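To whoever is on call:

I kicked off a structure prediction for a single chain this morning and the downstream step that reads the tokens threw a length-mismatch warning. I double-checked the sequence; it's 294 residues and nothing unusual in it as far as I can see. Pasting both halves so you can look.
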Amino acid sequence: MDQVNRVLLGKPRQVKLAFTCLIAGGHLLLEDVPGVGKTTLAHALAASFALDFQRVQFTSDLLPSDIIGVSVYERETGQFRFHPGPIFTGLLLADEINRATPKTQSALLEAMAESQVTVDGQTHVLSQPFFVVATQNPLDLAGTFPLPDSQLDRFMLRVSLDYPDAAAERALLTGSDRRDLLAQLTPQLDAQSLGQLSSQAQAVTASSALLDYLQALLAASRRHADVRVGLSPRAGLALLGAARSWALLSGRQYVLPEDIQAVFVPLAAHRLVPTRGASGDSLARQLLADVAVD
């Protein structure tokens, strides 16, 4: 995390959330305006964990086969041979994912849920780990296709980087070019070490009282007057997994309510469907304020 924070200045919380998502086996949605470091964060994560990296620029003419791959007939053998697409990688950066059509967006669903893709009736298993970092601009919505709820639910966390503070921006202006810094990054862990971290995170203790608090948050989201669709059981599992990873990154082998609170808004906001004008972020914060820790 120290290495990534030297490249993405002034964003230690967002970097920790990205690590949390990766260790918990989820996928990350970065939603922010252009130029704040979304691509830089993805590159730095891949370099720090020695992950194969592929970037796909999502556009309206992008086809599912451009991501998954295609079977090509070979005259010499008389058979079709599958040519893998960029999805066969460790970290896939899906840049401006909401600019692709729903058909192309849905090409990621099976991969994100089951770490495999099916082409011409044949199932192809993806490499492990498989981590999707998707970006989208929340303001420039002309010509975009909003992600459906089922697709949003595949992203464990949605994170905004925001503008840097004055000190971080000054360091950015006077420091080295980010591309040069990315080229200098060295792997700190490998895929096997990442797998070990994920196993350690799953073993982090969550007490009965902690689970009571987690379930109270889920229940409150489902009965809130301003929420049309609350958090699902799958969201509850993701919340527990993210809280365990956050606790592990904080140097503990047990989950505290503060761990759940740290990841709750990035995990819940994009899953809550409001009944009227309130945003998912404000609803998630309200749920945290309303549900007491016993």
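Update from on-call: the warning came from a stale cache, not from the record. Cleared it. Sanity check on the structure: The chain has two domains: 2-192, 203-290.
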